[in-house]
Amino acid sequence: MTAIAAWPSRAESWLDERGKWAWIAAMILGFIFFWPVGLALLGYMIWSKRMFSGRCAHRRAFDSHRYGARHGFRSSGNSAFDAYKADTLDRLEREQEEFEAFLKRLRDSKDKAEFDTYMQDRARTATDDETPPEAPKGGSGAY
Question: 27 in helix, strand or coil?
Answer without folding.
Answer: helix
